[in-house]
Design goal:
The protein is α/β, with parallel strands linked by helices. 42% of the residues lie in helices and 18% in strands. The chain is globular and about 60 Å long. The relative contact order is 0.18.
């Protein structure tokens, strides 16, 4: 049986609905799963006009009604946007509220096992704030809705997988968080996450922090005092871990398939590597939760929203990644 993937369209004023509409023109998606859009049917009809496609838009009242028929976009319609008042490419409180409601509905369905994974379109932090949503982004929303205190973020593009030790904090604070205990905990959790996804290899390489990993204290000592001891402790615990390896080399090595995954120490270290390699096809996977979520790794692109110009490759890859991992995730979560 094909997994049902709940696809949230993100901020209705952004490119999420458009890239969803375009991604769902791919027969490959329907071969892999039953895609179910969780959003607003009128917004999806408008998005189809933006990207110049003419699928049938079919509203359903539950995931169980979805058939996964190619050429049909099935929408669980929350009917929460007044299409006549929607202004593309601008921050609007109703759009922030709607985007949150799509995520909330998808999480509820995933928790009940009625969808097997969720693939999310981009949301806008300012729109969330305007709607008085108290969370800054997807990871924080998902953590709160699933009762997960510290979800894991994994980027995947081609052969490269990147976990993140820290995410949405300042660089100064990120460095303060690079401590042996935290690294050791993350290496254990990242290994378990690879197992949960059904990834056969479990070898993880840890990126260095300082230039050339500090050159034994010449350019900083964190690599020697925090990172290397954490790696050694992980190895002693039986984990397949190596590092630290200079950040100017480790991601190229990952692209070559030298490791199953890399542990990036801070947000931009891993983001730059993945997005420079392939901005549009980088997929974000949120793990360490009772549900599986994948996402595009770009924003709402308000500057091109409504033009039909947005590249949908990332949305397609996110849906396919959700379909790929959902069976293994469900088996191990159960």
């Amino acid at each position: 049986m094909k997994p049902i993937i709940g696809i949230t369209i993100g901020d209705p004023a952004g490119i999420g609905p458009e890239i969803t509409a375009h991604a769902l023109q791919s027969p490959e998606v329907y071969d892999a799963c039953i895609p179910l859009v969780i959003g607003d049917a009128d917004v999806m009809r408008q998005a189809c006009s933006f990207v110049k496609v003419t699928p049938e838009i079919r509203t359903v009242s539950s995931p169980e009604e979805a058939t996964g028929k190619a050429g049909v976009i099935e929408v669980l319609d929350l009917d929460n946007i007044e299409i006549g008042n929607l202004k593309m490419g601008t921050v609007q409180a109703p759009c922030g509220a709607a985007a949150y409601e799509y995520i909330e509905k998808a999480v509820h369905l995933a928790n009940e096992g009625r969808i097997h994974a969720m693939a999310t379109g981009p949301i806008n932090k300012e729109s969330l704030r305007a709607a008085k949503v108290e969370y800054i982004g997807h990871t924080e929303i998902l953590g709160a809705l699933t009762g997960t205190s510290d979800p894991l973020t994994l980027f995947q593009v081609d052969k490269m997988r990147i976990f993140f030790l820290t995410r949405h904090v300042s660089l100064r604070k990120a460095i303060d968080l690079i401590r042996k205990e935290r690294i050791l905990d993350y290496l254990s959790r990242c290994t378990e996450a690879l197992n949960q996804l059904g990834v056969e290899r479990k070898d993880i390489a840890v990126a260095g922090l300082n230039p050339h990993c500090g050159e034994h204290g010449l350019f900083g000592d964190e690599d020697d005092t925090e990172i290397r001891p954490a790696v050694e402790a992980a190895q002693a615990a039986g984990l397949d871990v190596t590092g630290p390896i200079g950040a100017d080399s480790i991601f190229h090595m990952a692209v070559e398939g030298r490791f199953a995954a890399v542990l990036s120490l801070y947000h931009d270290q891993g983001h730059i590597a993945a997005k420079t390699y392939d901005f549009y096809r980088t997929v974000s996977v949120t793990l360490g939760m009772p549900i599986l979520r994948t996402s595009v790794d770009h924003g709402t692109a308000f500057d091109v929203a409504g033009t039909g110009k947005a590249d949908s490759a990332g949305m397609k890859e996110a849906i396919l990644a959700a379909a790929q991992y959902a069976p293994s995730f469900a088996k191990r979560a159960g």
